[in-house]
Amino acid sequence: MILDVQDLPDGFSLDADICIVGAGPVGISLALTLATGGRRVLLLEGGGPAPEPDSQALYRGQVDAAGLHPSPDHYRERRYGGSSTIWGGRSMPYDSIDFETRPYVPHSGWPIDLAALSPFYGEAVRLCEAGRDAFTIETAFDTPRRPMIEGFDGEHFTTNTLERFSCPTDFGHRYRHKLEAAEGLQVVLHANVTDIRRSETGSEVTGLTVRSLAGRQGQVSAGRVILALGGLETARLLLASRIGERLDAVGRYYMCHIAGTIGSLKFTGPRDSVWNGYDVADDGSYCRRRFALRPEVQRRLGIGNFVARLHHPRIPDPRHRNGILSALYLARPIIPYEYGKRLYGDEAGGLGRWLAHAVNVATDLPATLGFLIHMLRDRRLAERKYPSIVIRSKSNSFSLDFHAEQVPDPDSRVVLTDEVDALGMPRLKADWRYGRADVETVSRSLALLAGDIERSGTGRFDYDPASVESEMTRYGAYGGHHIGTARMGSDPASSVVDADCRVHGIDNLYVAGSAVFPTSSQANPTLTAVAMALRLADHLKGSQP
Ligand SMILES: Cc1cc2nc3c(=O)[nH]c(=O)nc-3n(C[C@H](O)[C@H](O)[C@H](O)COP(=O)(O)OP(=O)(O)OC[C@H]3O[C@@H](n4cnc5c(N)ncnc54)[C@H](O)[C@@H]3O)c2cc1C
User: Fold this and answer.
1) Is the pTM of this model over 0.85?
2) What pLDDT band is residue 348 in, cutting at 50, 70 and 90?
3) What DSSP element (H or E) covers 62?
4) What's 2-130+169-256+409-432+481-542's CATH class?
5) How far is the CA of 10 from the centre of ligand 1 (A)?
6) C-alpha torsion sign, points 309, 314, 315, 318
7) 3-class secondary-structure state, position 204
8) Is the distance from CB of 226 to CB of 536 less than 8 angstroms?
9) How would you label 329-349 residue by residue, b for 16+ Cβ within 10 Å and e otherwise?
10) Ligand 1, CB cutoff 6 Å, lining residues
């Protein structure tokens, strides 16, 4: 059943076996899995079914270094479905090395390994609608596929691992009927949790305070409470409920990914010797290959995890003379902020630049029109959307898009401010930081890749090593990947939850989502966040309420 908190009387009181707070992909996956076997499950969601400016404004906050981090009300959505209402759907599991304690990555090491999570990836891929749990070109396809780059044999990089793409699935929309039909499950919209109350000793959650922007207030009690609010909001609620006073790691070790676009890659073979497009699986899901830094190289050189993709030239610079890219430039006013920032950066426009792009479109009209039809048919109208802009370069020239692990740093953190939101909750301040080790991971990986390409005789990768740091921070901590703020570990002095995602010292409080990841990997976080949520659900089903 799905209801609105306004349907309940003021001063309402609800009770459940398990209460999940937050109906994003993680909370919805938990609810679908736990609402079986006679359990009474409550899913509380602060937002409504559509975007609401007042609800989104609850996410506003401050940032310490404005150029480095977007305003906290960007790159996340306070509504039913959470940020899956706008996500890109890029999905891949974490690598085995990500779970290891690596002496060269301070604060690394998960209390679980990949084997503990592997059984849950299959179902997570299914819920994310990303095809099946097969993430190499050899395992995903029955018949051999053309190589990504003919003749490339990397000493440091592989090209056979895949990223798979979700539809991208809006979990609230896709699973609405299932949530409505699930016996024992109640979903309550516009139900914002503003406080977690605990017993005198602090070792048990006794209730949650729930408020709506329209003035409803009530209480919820539950045998177990799971916070699934996303990486920033989980820390905010823990801090606002004074749980951070006894667990210093709450809000610390805040990571995103280190990402950017750099350089010029030119392959010497014929056009067909390079494949930068999507491979389409039998079920219709899109898969794409990338350069992935081998784990043994990471260990040997003491650097973090890193992947890179073939990318089109920078859009705002009309010297690319590509009508498709120029059409995208001209479409700038209708592209959402979260995607526009990466496509265009903060570079100023101006009439001259606009005209140069218009000329590109006019001189490359057939290709541009073909692209617009493809985008309309395969992206706008298709249920499974074509994931991104892929330009087949006539000259086999590309730029390089990279996505790297960020080292956990206790001083990179989110804290509460003195300012409060419309529900009286302190607002957040994000003080996101990167370090020398992050610059080192990207710098050394790029140099290794340039070497691999040159040695294989397939082409050249030219970039300015002095520009690496500015390129990797050009867009700041973009991407909506909010990781590590309630990290998993065995020591309460340096972590927030244990290996079962239970908050240290509180018997019935759990955290689900990327907040619990101790390290960030190269991988986008949602698939692993869902797999971790399914592992938590499995644990809770197996233990007594
Ligand atoms: C533009 C964009 C593109 C992205 N692309 C990708 C991608 O390609 N691949 C990938 O892996 N990830 C991607 N992400 C990240 C992905 O969206 C998140 O990892 C994912 O949504 C996290 O799921 P979640 O359920 O943990 O949190 P959320 O999606 O943030 O959901 C949290 C829910 O909690 C609710 N809530 C918050 N506070 C309260 C409260 N106090 N009380 C009650 N309810 C509350 C919110 O309204 C929300 O519904 C992208 C994000 C953005 C913004």
Assistant:
1) yes
2) low
3) strand 61-63
4) alpha beta
5) 29
6) negative
7) coil
8) yes
9) beeeeeeeebebbbbbeeeee
10) 21-27, 44-47, 75-76, 78-79, 82-84, 86-91, 192-193, 228-230, 233, 237, 338, 480-481, 513-514, 524-526, 529
